[in-house]
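Handout for the seminar on molecular recognition.
Each group receives one record of this type.
Step one: identify the two inputs.
Step two: read the structure output and locate the region that could contact N,N,N-trimethyl-histidine.
Step three: write two sentences on what you found, then compare them with the reference statements printed after the record.
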Amino acid sequence: MDDNERTQLIAGLLATQARVAPTYFYDLAGSRLFEVITLLDEYYPTVTETRILERHAPDIATAFADAVGDCALLVEPGAGNCEKVRQLLPGLRPAHYLALDVSVDFVEQALQSLRRAFPAIAMSVVAADITQTQPWPLPDSRGGRLFFYPGSSIGNFTPDQARALVARMHAACQGRGGLLIGVDLVKDHSVLHAAYNDALGVTAAFNLNLLRHLNRLIGSDFRLQQWEHHAFYDETASRIEMHLRAREPLQVQWRSPAGSGLPERRAFEAGETIHTENSYKYTADAFAALLRDAGFARVRRWTDERDYFGVFLATTE
Ligand code: AVJ
């Protein structure tokens, strides 16, 4: 991490409502904890999406081919363990699979077994956080491009930010391509609440682990026993909010980049929080409208029996 990122991170900690971007959940332990979350009974999104992809991967590949032809480049931002793309590769047969992720080592491990299973497909990983504004490091490709953005990661953005990100993907398709994206849908609040407040406390550990990560990144002295997990559904905003809440009055110190002029400590009152994540939920119609507003010409959707989760294919034609 560079000083610019450190400065942004510390500015977030100093804000009246302290905040840290959810990107910082995913150090090695955080990535592993997230994998455990996906195995929990309460956390329905991953299994539900996987079932939708298993069932409909052939239709999805056909729909893409009908709209734009061969897939020259399949790009997966935030690829993580690369498990979901396995479903797609046999039908889609892209010439090149490019994983973009902040944790290159984690993805590189996953790619080793994927390469053995699909030797005909070129595979690579590049370190990139697509939420940062730098141009995306995409290779030239002849033929259709497909962005694959599963897991409802799009839920971490506000709807305006989400539309802007989708519009960048649309632009990066260069007139011939698509976006295959998974989105968590609005549903009974108790189901949503339980998904972020699991009985085993894995989501709490995942949230608290962010403080360990910060301690390494900015030399802070967060003590985990002084904090607790707090997650709730805000119906008006249509989002889950995750926070870390101070159990008692406390002080935190860190090292700010030289010359940044940023204070190197903050006091938190008991009950004050650090906002660590938003996870927006959409209706299927609202999300289809967002994809069209971002420039895509055509949208197809697949869902599960309970309408818990949506998989959308948006194409340029
Ligand atoms: C990876 C952003 C989709 O919002 O459900 C899971 C992250 N946070 N449990 C989500 C998460 C707490 C997850 N996303």
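Reference statements: The CA atoms of residues 170 and 295 lie 6 Å apart. The pocket of N,N,N-trimethyl-histidine is lined by residues 37, 45, 151-153, 155-156, 196, 203, 277, 279 (CB under 6 Å).
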